[in-house]
Write a structure and sequence with these properties.
Blueprint lengths: L2 H12 L4 H5 L3 E9 L4 E7 L6 E6 L2 E8 L5 E5 L2 E6 L2 E6 L2 E7 L2
Antiparallel strand pairs: 1-2, 1-8, 2-3, 3-4, 4-5, 5-6, 6-7, 7-8
């Protein structure tokens, strides 16, 4: 199974039943991650392009990042941002600021 397919499957299982997924089976979200630095990140995953992408919204900033190679979970990288999520948790490096995030459980 390719990394793109594997991460798409993991995310689809995690967020099955969201309204966005019903409207477009390649998109998952938006999903809100609450971070230990007090911020929130809204993530919308799109498995249609190759490579897959995630759109991240944090405050007034919006970035769309392509998926990068990952041994585990789904990793997205670009614009000085690394967003690496596995299940309900994410590790984030937002332009030099590192923090952890998770979805509501």
């Amino acid at each position: 199974m390719s990394p793109r397919t594997r991460s798409g499957t993991v995310l689809a299982l995690l967020f099955a039943g969201t309204a966005a997924q019903a409207a477009d089976p390649d998109k998952i979200g938006p999903v809100t991650f609450t971070c230990d630095d007090g911020s929130a990140i809204e993530a919308t995953f799109d498995n249609a392009p190759d490579p897959a992408t995630v759109q991240l919204v944090r405050g007034e900033q919006t970035f769309t990042l392509p998926q990068a190679i990952s041994a585990s979970g789904a990793r997205y990288l670009g614009d000085g941002i690394e967003f690496w999520n596995k299940g309900n948790d994410a590790m984030v490096d937002w332009q030099g600021q590192k923090f952890s995030c998770s979805t509501a459980r």
